[in-house]
Amino acid sequence: MTSQVHNRWLHRYAVLTAIVALLPIGMGALVTTLGAGMAFLDWPTSDGQNMFLYPWLSDFRAQPLKFAEHGHRLAGSLIGLFSIGLVAWTLRVESRTWVRRLAIGILCAVVGQGLLGGFRVIADDRVAALVHGVCASLIFSTIGVFALVTSRRWNEIGAEPCDSAAEISTGLVRFAVLTPLAMLGQSVVGGFIRHFGGALHEHLGGAILVTGLCLVSALACWRTKQSWLRSATLGLLAVLLIQLSLGAGAWVTRFGFPPAGYVAVQQAPEQIVIRSLHTVVAMFALLASVQLAARVLRLRSVRLSNPTRERDVQLVANSELAGAFTLTHASGYKGDSVSISLAGGAVR
User: Is 58 in contact with 32 (CB distance < 8 Å)?
Assistant: First the structure.
């Protein structure tokens, strides 16, 4: 397979765009924690003033809710500009049609996200606020995937011969895809708690489910012995551990911890910080699981699309088990394989 020309500066710009996306995400998490979503009753203006001319910094001490909400709006405008740059750069240097479309899709999603945020204010709609938060997770993960597919390693995987690609089982693919879907559902339930105050026990159950799926996916990926998957696995487990710790902290700062004599104080600084970080890290967890799934699917596609090269007859012996050997005959098409077990006489 011919290697796609790698443009390292496009990849770096995509990574920078993902970093910039953390600004509206972080400010948005803070806005929800503070309950500042309706600090302004108008949009796109702020108290009737042009968004970019509003004296934002003067609200830092006097009106912290307006400071947080307007900071979220400005950060949203910034990621919009970066998304425009991403599309322009991609169309200039990227030859893969689907990657060009992905960049355009990111820009459209960012614009739609801004409009959704404005609708949330104008309609004072908490459901729209919930959807707004979930969409932020999806957009962040999509930008992360874009950075992945423009990386050097993604292109190198496609250029490697079939034998260097890992054996990716159907079961691994299923768990790798199911994990981010479960995380997305967990984010929806978490948003329901933050905006409506319910579904706490459902969220705890979802955390157990997601943790189990992450562990199963991580174990399966580790067994492939593929360093590309193992690095993503370690990242996912690290983020998961941090997220579980923040979840425990969010619980303690909200309900207290009597054994230690800790009494929860609503909207205390530690509660605001931990709950907001819990939201942001949840988006990192979704990104990590999506990245892992994308790598699994990439390796799977390479394994299935590359023609099998001619192989010699291999004899595999194990003296402690029933003798077995595998005769592999490459037909030049897909590589037909015949396996004969001396113990059972089975032919596959």
Answer: no
Question: What is the token pair recorded at 168?
Answer: 């990716």
The token duo for 240 is 């998961």
Q: Where are the domains of the chain?
A: 1-159, 163-306, 307-348
Cα–Cα distance between 265 and 95 in angstroms, integer? 55
pLDDT tens digit sequence for 138-197: 999 999 999 999 999 998 886 655 444 457 889 999 999 999 999 999 999 999 999 998
Per residue in 24-69, pLDDT tens? 999 999 999 999 999 999 999 999 999 999 999 999 989 999 999 9
CATH code that applies to domain 163-306: 1.20.120
CA dihedral for 93, 106, 22, 243, sign (positive or negative): negative
Q: Radius of gyration over alpha carbons of the chain, in Å?
A: 25
